[in-house]
From TrEMBL:
This is NPH3 domain-containing protein. The keyword Metal-binding does not apply. Transmembrane segments: none annotated. Signal peptide: none annotated. The keyword Coiled coil applies. The lineage of its organism: Eukaryota, Viridiplantae, Streptophyta, Embryophyta, Tracheophyta.
Length: 551
């Protein structure tokens, strides 16, 4: 309530229709002045003081910080052209139209709308500010010479060194796209939310919208900055934000992120998920984030998947169930209807060639194997959860099984109390045919593995070596036959073709000697194991090994 005392002599000079009406109703002929009481004047006492000076003919300064409250108060007091030329309604409206062509002043005006929001909404000042800002955000500021804030959005370039779908992230979001991030982050959540929706509706790239949302979150959520290398003091978080407010803000922003694969990095999504768990966000919010991470799990890094367990039981060090759900989301997208069966014996060269084709499934398989190796060192990691994670990715997705073998080896080392049947069950995750030569050599000497697995590794490695040796002999014979069929044709000593053939034969001989040494070494290992372990006496017959190997 504002008490107002006016002299009767000013009755005819007032420029407010409302004040004229009130004065006429409250003043008598014998009184030289009257007292009025005004309620809910927009902008409060400070704004009404400026209007009073304006009514008395004193020139007032209209700025981007007071124009909204003055415009709302002028409308409330009915200061239209009917009560004087160049009245306050017209002046403030003209100034607002000038502000809408300027980015910084539009931001300031929108911020001040919060103080008089009901009146500003009725006069469509908020919607006009938002439409003006949205149009400018979708345009190049250099084309229109807008004086935008020269701040560097470092946190939006945190993953510039990383690749997105094999392409440098700079090509997705150039520096000219993020010039408006800081200014709009100064807005309250309701205004910011409406502005982001308007910007997206006007055609802004989804990547830029998502980056702005992450930027906004980092100003208010300390947990988002604590998990990154974000050190820009110009974008420090807002202090004294309650946990409930942070949780509500996170849930609102997550809903605004465009539902499109790759609009933001998996690193950001996993950081959001971790923050949601710490703040106890709603199940729908966490499920939303898990589904988004699962859709682009092939772009994730191992360190980001190591989410601490926030549950009450604290059964394991890391949240295994969360990763299991993310894997299930991924497999629901990428699991093909039918899978071709793998051949019985696979050449190591063919395995390495297949690894070059890094499909999303193969990339996730490698990622999962690394994750399993990390969580295997947790003594509380149950065998059931380990097996469930490992079999989530089909066998065909792994060109080589070195990664899963390493995870199995770590689990066996940390859990020495496993029974023989549990060890057998664990080792069934590994395909001995898909181990590299280095992994096979390690497995053949690994005392933590069951005897059946060690013999199987040796068996398949010997078959692979025999197949390789036969192949080299076949190539060598063909080269020799080629020389015999050449007849009396003699090539000069300096002929490049003759030198290449000689070098090729020499390389073949060297490779053949290496393979023979490897085969001999494996035979010796097998003989040592046969002598030291009586339980192996029936295995040679079962697998068809000869007692005397021929060279």
């Amino acid at each position: 309530m504002l008490p107002l005392k006016l002299a009767k002599s000013h009755f005819s000079s007032t420029r407010s229709g409302l004040l004229k009406k009130l004065i006429a109703e409250s003043s008598n002929e014998d009184e030289s002045s009257c007292v009025l009481q005004l309620y809910d004047v927009p902008g409060g006492a400070k704004t009404f003081e400026d209007i009073t000076r304006f009514c008395y003919g004193v020139k007032i300064e209209i700025t981007s910080l007071n124009v909204v409250s003055l415009r709302c108060a002028a409308e409330y007091l009915q200061m239209t052209e009917d009560y004087g030329e160049a009245n306050l309604v017209e002046q403030t409206e003209t100034f607002l139209n000038e502000i809408f062509s300027n980015w910084p002043d539009s931001i300031k005006a929108l911020e001040t709308c919060e103080e008089v929001q009901p009146f500003a909404e009725d006069l469509h000042i908020v919607s006009r500010c938002i439409d003006s800002l949205a149009m400018k955000a979708c345009s190049d500021p250099n084309l229109f010479n807008w004086p935008v804030a020269a701040r560097n959005c470092k946190q939006n370039q945190e993953d510039d060194h990383a690749l997105w779908n094999g392409i440098s992230r700079d090509t997705r979001l150039s520096q000219s796209d993020d010039w408006w991030f800081y200014d709009v982050s100064l807005l309250s959540l309701p205004f910011y939310k409406r502005l982001i929706i308007a910007i997206e509706a006007k055609g802004m790239k989804s990547e830029a919208v998502a980056a702005s949302l992450i930027y906004y979150l980092r100003r208010f959520l300390p947990l988002m900055n604590r998990q990154s290398s974000f050190t820009d003091t110009g974008h420090a978080t807002i202090p004294n934000t309650s946990e409930a407010d942070q949780r509500a803000l996170l849930e609102e922003i997550v809903e605004l992120i465009p539902n499109k694969r790759g609009v933001t990095s998996s690193k950001n999504l996993l950081r959001l998920l971790r923050t949601a768990m710490i703040l106890s966000a709603s199940p729908s919010c966490r499920e939303n984030l898990e589904r988004r991470v699962g859709a682009q799990l092939d772009q994730a890094a191992l360190v980001d998947l190591l989410i601490p367990n926030m549950g009450y039981s604290m059964e394991t060090l890391y949240d295994i169930d969360c990763i299991q759900r993310i894997l299930d989301h991924f497999m629901s997208i990428y699991q093909p209807a039918s899978v071709a069966a793998s051949p019985c014996i696979i050449e190591q060269g063919a395995l390495m060639a297949g690894a070059d084709a890094l499909t999303p499934m193969t990339m996730v398989a490698n990622l999962l194997d690394g994750y399993l190796a990390e969580v295997a060192s947790d003594t509380n990691m149950s065998l059931a959860k380990f097996l469930a994670l490992a079999i989530a990715i089909p066998d065909y997705a792994r060109p080589l099984d070195d990664g899963i073998y390493h995870a199995i080896d770590v689990y066996l080392k940390i859990h020495p109390w496993l029974t023989d049947s549990e060890r057998e069950q664990l080792c069934r995750l590994m395909n001995c045919q898909k181990l590299s030569l280095e992994a096979s050599t390690h497995a053949a000497q690994n005392e933590r593995l069951p005897l059946r697995v060690i013999v199987q590794v040796l068996f398949f490695e010997q078959l692979r070596l025999r197949t390789s040796i036969s192949g080299w002999f076949f190539v060598s014979d063909n080269l020799d036959n080629g020389h015999h069929h050449s007849g009396n044709v003699v090539l000069p000593n300096n002929d490049p073709c003759q030198r290449d053939t000689a070098e090729g034969n020499e390389n073949l001989r060297e490779r053949l000697l290496e393979l023979e040494k490897e085969c001999s070494s494996i035979r010796n290992e097998l003989q040592k194991l046969t002598k030291t372990k009586k339980s192996w006496s029936i295995l040679p017959k079962r697998f068809g090994f000869r007692k005397k190997s021929e060279s």
